[in-house]
Amino acid sequence: MTESPLDPELARRLKRNADGLVCAVVVDHETSDVLMVAWMDDEALHRTLTTRRATYFSRSRQRLWVKGETSGHVQHVREVRLDCDADTLLVRVDQTGPACHTGTRSCFDTGERLLLADDGGPAGARPAGQV
Amino acid sequence: MTESPLDPELARRLKRNADGLVCAVVVDHETSDVLMVAWMDDEALHRTLTTRRATYFSRSRQRLWVKGETSGHVQHVREVRLDCDADTLLVRVDQTGPACHTGTRSCFDTGERLLLADDGGPAGARPAGQV
């Protein structure tokens, strides 16, 4: 195994999956909308932290992928957090252009991606008189 | 393989990983903060969609897990979306109590989980006179 380019303490904390990757949830810094979910290996995380240009590991292409390298829809990284069990990253970015390769702002936009519509909250939380 | 309890069209769309799971990003409906990331198999998604009580598949315990079943920190599901490549869910919830088992509101809170602090945005975006 190649030595990790990460700080040794961080490299020790990270809980990678069987493919050596951690999940990265990418959030729009301005709106807090979740834009996309991607994956990082140690090298992708190292480059993301040191360059503030969001860099992922493409599972389909099996290589590093600088977001926007061909589309121009780059992400400037504002903040990176690790979750309580150290297998997921929260990456806040300034997004240039759409984040989704389909051209939508986020990967969760458009009607056919809605599986369950908002019910207005639990019944007990509704103002009296509303059904 | 057991037949999926999901609507056949949705069951056909879902891109599960090698363990039969899809990633679920859980967001606070009120604040839009990312609370946690968990995993769902078809049964967990089916129960989440039909009961609006967030239900996941625990990879460590290898069983279904109704969020809050022991802690009381349940999640009422407001909305569920699927992403463009159908391997990630975005689940908006009304969270009762803290979402994280460590007692913090989200799994990304607390200082030691911060890997990279906000730099205030790309240099070009800063008001003149600021460094």
UniProtKB/TrEMBL annotation, chains A, B:
Which GO-annotated molecular functions does the record name? phosphoribosyl-AMP cyclohydrolase activity
What SUPFAM superfamilies does UniProt report for this protein, alphabetically? HisI-like (SSF141734)
Task: Tell me which residues make up the Phosphoribosyl-AMP cyclohydrolase domain.
Answer: 36-108
Answer yes or no on keyword Zinc: yes
According to its UniProt record, this protein's enzyme class is: hydrolase
Q: Which residues bind Zn(2+)?
A: 84, 100, 107
State the NCBIfam families in the record.
PRK00051.1 (NF000768)
Name by which UniProt lists this protein: Phosphoribosyl-AMP cyclohydrolase
What organism is listed for this UniProt entry?
Prauserella oleivorans
